[in-house]
């Protein structure tokens, strides 16, 4: 999706649309909104670390259905670079911060399985949703954002390190 795509009506972040509107409409301010892909790297907290912790605690790394749904992530170093560029060269607007290397949830879960020694297992949407509906929505969604506008506006170049390579390379610690 592009920066001009409308935000979904239902979201795991329901205040996002309002916050973006307030930012972009604020008088005498260069309103910049960054839509970050899944942020990863350096053993950071968030979705990947939680998935690793879940694989260890459950003894299995899980994805929904065939796991073919894809996302475009962004390495934490790359998004920091983008924020610095935007601070020094402020241009109002909405910008996607994503790499050019999407991943499928199955590929990510298989990499997490290799890292943790837990098998990668497919589960049904209903299995996840009966416990946490928003998590099932998130894990089964697709987010194929494109980041060309941020790259051309700020001369930003993501590193190209893929999320699955990063997991396999040991960027994350397996909890005991």
Please outline the major beta sheet: 2 strands, parallel
Query: What is the helix tally?
Result: 8
Structural class: alpha/beta
Mean pLDDT: 91
What's the N-to-C terminus distance?
38 Å
Outline the low-pLDDT stretches. Answer: none
**Rg value:** 17 Å
The general outline is globular
- Binned, the helix content reads 40-55%
Q: Count all strands and give the number.
A: 8
Elements, N to C (H/E): HEEHEEEHEEHEHHHH
| Largest sheet strand order | 1-6
Could you tell me the strand content as a percent range? 5-15%
Assembly type: single chain
Defining key terms:
two-stranded parallel ribbon, alpha/beta, two-stranded parallel sheet, single chain, 15% strand
Walkthrough of the structure:
Helix content is 41%, strand content 15%. It has 176 residues and is of the alpha/beta class. A two-stranded parallel sheet has the order 1-6. The N and C termini lie far apart (38 Å).
